[in-house]
Write a structure and sequence with these properties.
Layout lengths: L3 E2 L10 H12 L10 H21 L6 E4 L2 H15 L6 E5 L4 H12 L3 E5 L9 H7 L4 E5 L13 H11 L4 E5 L11 H4 L3 E5 L10 E5 L25 H16 L1 H22 L4 E4 L6 E5 L5 H9 L3 E2 L13 H5 L4 H5 L1 E5 L6 H17 L6
Parallel strand pairs: 1-11, 3-4, 3-5, 5-6, 6-7
Antiparallel strand pairs: 2-8, 7-8, 9-10, 10-12
Helix pairs in contact: 1-8, 2-8, 3-4, 9-13
Length: 380
């Protein structure tokens, strides 16, 4: 059976360059970067070079990049550190109702601890009004957390506009951005966005799972994630995961080099996919065409998304009904759009890459056509 992977927003296969870098560090450059002997010094040099590569892909300075285990850790650390920095100024947080669980769940926990949270609501297309974000700011706002690209809709959020609003209001808030779905998928730099903190993840760009990074604006004093040795500037102690970091850097170098061509190729495939799906399935509805090249969302009203996902998987077509973190539950992102229940039930997230082929798209169309013909609709 042929395999057609259309869930690139969930994770990506490891790039050959990343796998080669990981193997090299595991078998040859295995020294501890904190050791004083030559293997340790070699590992420290390699770690510096890898930090420079990830920073260059981000458009940041190497000293502004701290390595973590994943995007979720980066998000959680940024949120807690921002609140620690603003603990004497207030307990008000602004975020959106369509954040990834790695932001949404820590902020919900903080809400239970006594923080006041303003949840910005999207419009029916999944966009956040910049004026709504500006109006939510208060004198006691200490954190604004807004993702760059929504992982289920592909919509761009007004992060740069939020940064300008914070400055214009003289607000003490720090601005954090979850850019996990934006890194090397849409052009940006942390400085251009005006953020203080920004999270990225390796496995979304062709690195292995288990590595991420947190951008910390130069001059911002961050509280440590935990206590221990002096690694990562003393802010995230523990021996660095040099194997994963080397793979992350290799994937970042490769992705940076081919970014323009990759974005154009993914955009073409998305246009082809939307055209083919709407032509073959008149009852299919587009929830969001996405503002970025690699993600869009559709629904087949009257059918259950989890059934569709299994039906397609049995035919070698792999996609999802939303973020992998939902695990079968209705997506809070789709629900925030105010969709009719039949649309919500049948929602699907389709995510592409420059490697997505016409055959992959044909298999998707054929699979959904077969599902419509073979599955029972719940609509009368």
């Amino acid at each position: 059976m042929e395999h057609h992977y259309l869930d690139w927003a969930a994770t990506t296969p490891v790039r050959p360059e990343a796998a080669a870098a990981a193997l090299e560090v595991m078998t040859e450059g295995y020294g501890n970067p904190s050791s004083g002997h030559e293997p340790g010094r070699q590992a420290a040099r390699r770690l510096r070079e890898d930090r420079e590569a990830v920073a260059a892909a981000l458009g940041a300075r190497p000293e502004e990049v701290l390595f973590t285990s994943c995007g979720t850790e980066s998000d959680n650390w940024a949120i807690r550190a921002a609140l620690q920095a603003g603990r004497h100024r207030g307990k008000h947080i602004v975020t959106t109702a369509i954040e990834h669980a790695a932001v949404r769940e820590p902020i919900r926990a903080l809400e239970r601890e006594g923080y006041e949270v303003t949840w910005l609501r999207p419009d029916s297309a999944g966009h956040i009004d910049p004026a709504q974000a500006a109006a939510a700011l208060r004198e006691d706002t200490v954190l604004v957390s807004m993702m760059l690209v929504n992982n289920e809709l592909g919509t761009l959020l007004p992060v740069a506009e939020a940064a300008r609003a914070i400055r214009a209001a003289g607000c003490p808030a720090l601005l954090h951005c979850d850019a996990v779905q934006g890194f090397l998928k849409t052009p940006f730099t942390p400085g251009g966005l005006g953020v203080d903190l920004l999270s990225v993840s390796g496995h979304k760009i062709g690195a292995p799972k288990g590595v991420g990074a947190l951008y910390v604006r130069r001059g911002l004093k961050l509280s440590p994630l935990m206590l221990g040795g002096g690694q990562e500037g003393g802010l995230r102690p523990g021996t660095e995961a040099t194997t994963q970091i080397a793979a992350f850097a290799a994937a970042a170098r490769a992705g940076r080099a081919s970014l323009e061509a990759d974005l154009a190729a993914a955009a073409r495939r998305k246009e082809e996919a939307l055209t083919a799906l709407t032509a073959a399935l008149p009852e299919l509805r587009v929830i969001s065409p996405g503002d970025v090249p690699h993600i869009f969302a559709v629904t087949l009203p009257g059918y259950k998304s989890e059934v569709l996902v299994r039906f397609l998987s049995d035919r070698g077509v792999y996609l999802s009904s939303g973020s992998a973190c939902h695990r079968g539950k209705h997506s809070h992102v789709f629900a925030a759009l105010g969709l009719p229940k039949s649309w919500l039930d049948g929602a699907l997230r389709i995510s592409l890459s420059p490697r997505t082929s016409p055959d992959d798209l044909a298999a998707l169309v054929q699979g959904l056509t077969a599902a419509r013909e073979q599955l029972f609709s719940t609509l009368s």
